[in-house]
Design a protein that fits this description.
single chain, alpha+beta, Beta-Lactamase, 2 domains, five-stranded antiparallel sheet, 43% helix
């Protein structure tokens, strides 16, 4: 049985679109090819993954298995799509993984992640062997994810990270400061502040400062804003 960890500072953006997660790490004894996680991210399999979707909807362990198709998620009562079954079939054929249990972790600031324990066993056999350990898995997963997230700064999750000056300007703007007030606080010219905030909008794909603040908040760049 192997363990992989997935994390997203915000599971969905302000428009409801699934956000690209970050693989925090993978430890496995099942000889899983590391390129699998690259495909998972690059080919956006996370948008299709029924395990990811199920973990978004609960705080309890999610048991899943290929042999229970067309209901890949145990107890959900939802028929999986042909594409989802195809993804699981590929997982079986290429990795030998038939089942697993994923532990959702939802942070206080809206971050989301889950730790997945995969297995070669049929899911019913896996559940019979490990169902009594659910509470231990929950506790260990939350502790593990909390420790891992501390090592990943939000700016590492942005393709073109914000500079310290850009972050400071954005944080002050998020707290309602005007351009003139930000300039005074940071001992900069208003023109320079406008330039920094313009770069923030460019890097976050925002159309204006309000949009940039919303994007940064959903990405977890600002932390709690009071």
């Amino acid at each position: 049985m192997g363990a992989g960890m997935v994390y997203a500072p915000r599971a969905r953006d302000r428009y409801g679109a699934m956000q690209r997660p970050t693989m925090l790490g993978m430890s496995t004894e099942s000889n899983i090819d590391p390129s699998w996680q690259d495909h998972y991210l690059h080919d956006e399999w996370y948008k299709l993954d029924p395990v990811y979707q199920a973990c978004l909807q609960t705080t309890l362990p999610v048991w899943w298995g290929y042999d229970t198709k067309p209901n890949l998620i145990v107890g959900l009562g939802k028929t999986s799509s042909a594409m989802q079954i195809g993804l699981f079939n590929r997982c079986v054929q290429e990795l030998g993984v038939r089942s697993g249990v994923s532990i959702p972790v939802h942070s206080a600031l809206g971050g989301f992640g889950y730790i997945v324990f995969s297995s070669y066993l049929p899911v019913q056999e896996l559940m019979e062997r490990n169902r009594d350990h659910e509470n231990h898995l929950l506790a260990l997963s939350h502790r593990c994810m909390a420790d891992l997230i501390k090592k990943v700064t939000p700016r590492e999750l942005v393709a073109d990270p914000l500079s310290d000056r850009e972050n400071e300007c954005l944080a002050l703007a998020a707290h309602g400061k005007t351009l003139d007030e930000i300039a005074t606080i940071m001992s900069l010219s208003e023109r320079t502040v406008r330039f920094h905030l313009g770069k923030v909008c460019e890097k976050l794909g925002a159309t204006n400062r309000v949009h940039a603040i919303a994007r940064a908040s959903y990405l977890g760049l600002l932390g709690p804003v009071h």
